[in-house]
Amino acid sequence: MSFTPEVSSSHPTSRSTDCLDLDAACADLSTLDLANIDESQPELDFVLNVSAGDVGTIGHPNMYYTIDSRRLASKHKKSQHDRKLLYGVKQFNLEPVRGLKYLEESGFVDQTPESIAKFLFRQERLSKKQIGKYLGSHHDFNKEVLLHFVRCHEFTQLLLVQALRQFLWSFRLPGEAMQIDRVMDAFAAHYCAQNQNIFEERDTCFILSFSIIMLNTALHNPNAKMKITAEQFIKQNKGINSGRDLDANMLEAIFRNIKEEPFKIPDETYDDLMYTFFSPEREGWLMKQGGSWKSWKRRWFVLNDRCLYYFQHTAENVPKGIIPLENVRVRSVEDRDGKQFVFEIYSDMAEIIKGCKTDSNGTVVQGNHKYYRLSATNEEDRDEWIQCIQESIRDNPFHKIISDKKAAIRRRSGQRTAPKPNETS
Question: How far, rounded to the nearest angstrom, does the alpha carbon of residue 111 sit from its chain's CA centroid?
Answer without folding.
Answer: 22
